[in-house]
Amino acid sequence: MGIRLVLGADEAGVDYKDRILKDLGSDPRISEIIDIGVNRSDAPEDFTKPYPYVGIKAGELIRDGKADRAILFCGTGIGVAIAANKVDGIRATTAHDSFSVERSILSNDCQVLTMGQRVVGVELASRLAKEWLGYVFDPTSASADKVKVLTDFEGC
Ligand SMILES: O=C[C@H](O)[C@H](O)COP(=O)(O)O
């Protein structure tokens, strides 16, 4: 089965979210894209919903087994990462370079990658999103015991 991917953003990240949605639309590794907004067609009160709603919603979808991974955007990527990390079992990180994107999976088994529309160029963001989807955590690797400390702490 392919990756069930959540894409989300606040108002400050919506342009990148929509661009990545387009870029990943025909990616054969993805079986489903779940766009949790915000969207430009939203009512003003929904469009301006702050970043915590986006990060928490994405984290809940993963926690509840309805999605596998999420790529989220806000101004910096920081707010949506903090919010997603509030959900039990979620490992979310902001990353704007290729090495960190790789290690976020191979070292940390992150389910959520976040980027900032005010920080990184859109072409690089799109490339990093595609790279990130190509990495798979190895549960037999030396990193697995380190991740397990986190999951044991959270009891999930
Ligand atoms: O981390 C927060 C985000 O960058 C958000 O999009 C902008 O938040 P601010 O308006 O509080 O700077």
UniProtKB/TrEMBL annotation:
<comment type="pathway">
    <text>Carbohydrate metabolism; D-threitol degradation.</text>
</comment>
<dbReference type="InterPro" id="IPR051812">
    <property type="entry name" value="SPI_LacAB/RpiB"/>
</dbReference>
<dbReference type="GO" id="GO:0071322">
    <property type="term" value="P:cellular response to carbohydrate stimulus"/>
</dbReference>
<dbReference type="InterPro" id="IPR036569">
    <property type="entry name" value="RpiB_LacA_LacB_sf"/>
</dbReference>
<protein>
    <recommendedName>
        <fullName>D-erythrulose 4-phosphate isomerase</fullName>
        <ecNumber>5.3.1.34</ecNumber>
    </recommendedName>
</protein>
<comment type="pathway">
    <text>Carbohydrate metabolism; erythritol degradation.</text>
</comment>
<dbReference type="Pfam" id="PF02502">
    <property type="entry name" value="LacAB_rpiB"/>
</dbReference>
<dbReference type="GO" id="GO:0016861">
    <property type="term" value="F:intramolecular oxidoreductase activity, interconverting aldoses and ketoses"/>
</dbReference>
<dbReference type="GO" id="GO:0016052">
    <property type="term" value="P:carbohydrate catabolic process"/>
</dbReference>
<dbReference type="GO" id="GO:0009758">
    <property type="term" value="P:carbohydrate utilization"/>
</dbReference>
<dbReference type="InterPro" id="IPR003500">
    <property type="entry name" value="RpiB_LacA_LacB"/>
</dbReference>
<keyword id="KW-0413">Isomerase</keyword>
<comment type="similarity">
    <text>Belongs to the LacAB/RpiB family.</text>
</comment>
